Amino acid sequence: MVSQHWTNPRQIGLPMKRTALATLLAATALVATPHAASAAQDTACKKAGMKTLQAAGLLDDVARGGLPISTAVALGLTPRAGTDVSALPDPLPLSVVLADHRAGSRSLFVYPWC
Backbone phi, then psi, for 110, in 5-degree steps? Predict the structure, then answer.
């Protein structure tokens, strides 16, 4: 005898899928929130650094040839404790300066605008 109540096979396990999805979204929100805040801070820091170079008329030169460490210090950067400045390339390539901004508390320099 055939049952008169038909169940859509796609709906079997749907409550469990919804619970798993809700749990995954909640976990993602907890993990992503600090990272998102950190990323926003890093982006703001990099933008402020770019504006500093632009205001000093150095952005094009640094993009082409890097940032001399003496110029970085003159702009207010200070080496973080433990940074061996003599081991760094001089000038610092712009890609290195940007990556250092993203390093947060592990950066080589302390940036006054961050």
Answer: -100, 125
Q: Taking a C-beta distance cutoff of 8 angstroms, is the pair 83, 53 a contact? A: no
Helix (H) or strand (E) holding 12: none
Please tell me the number of Cα atoms within 13 Å of 110 on its side-chain side: 6
Longest dimension (CA), the chain: 89
Report the C-alpha dihedral over residues 66, 72, 78, 83, rounded to 10 degrees. 20
Question: Where exactly are the structural domains of the chain?
Answer: 38-110
The answer to whether the beta carbons of residues 92 and 66 sit under 8 Å apart is: yes
Cβ neighbors of 110 (< 8 A, separation 6 or more) are: 77, 78, 79, 80
Q: For residue 49, which of 1, 109, 105, 8 has the smallest C-alpha distance?
A: 109
Q: Is the pTM of this model over 0.70?
A: no
Q: What is the pLDDT of residues 13-27, one digit of tens each?
A: 545 434 333 333 333
Q: What is the pLDDT of residues 41-75, one digit of tens each?
A: 678 888 999 999 999 999 999 999 999 999 999 99
